[in-house]
Amino acid sequence: MLESGFFADRLGKLEMLKLCYLGSGVATLCWLVCWNFTTILIMSLVFGFFVGGVISLLPSVAAELYGIERLASILGLLYSCTAFGNLL
User: Fold this and answer.
1) Which of 4, 7, 17, 23 has CB atoms 3.0–4.6 Å from 50's, for a disulfide?
2) d(Cα 53, Cα 21) in Å, to the nearest integer?
3) What angle do CA 61, 75, 2 make, to 5 degrees?
4) Whether residue 1 has pLDDT greater than 60
């Protein structure tokens, strides 16, 4: 089955994370033109794929960039910084 981890193995974790952030942003903007059930369904599938990639790849990329020793504090900072945007 095709999932973000499959593509991350081929493209690289950081590149796939960048693509997932871009894809989720574009999918969010596509919500503005969803007028019926079919378009909302397609948008939600695309958005779910990319957001799932962000959620699953972020800890892996953080561990690769900053090391496993400080991973808990790095992830806490990253998730805390996104909390305000998520509330909006």
Assistant:
1) 23
2) 8
3) 40
4) no
pTM of the complete model: 0.82
Q: What is the mean pLDDT of residues 70-83?
A: 90
Q: CA–CA separation, 41 vs 51, rounded Å? A: 15
Contact present, 4 and 53 (Cβ < 8 Å): yes
Q: What is the C-alpha R_g of the chain?
A: 15
Cα-flanking dihedrals φ and ψ of residue 49, to 5°?
Answer: -60, -50
Give residue 68's pLDDT: 92
CA–CA gap between residue 57 and residue 43 (Å, rounded): 21
| Residue located via tokens 């990319």 | 50
- Identify the residue with better confidence: 74 or 88: 74
* CA-wise closest residue to 79 among 13, 62, 68: 62
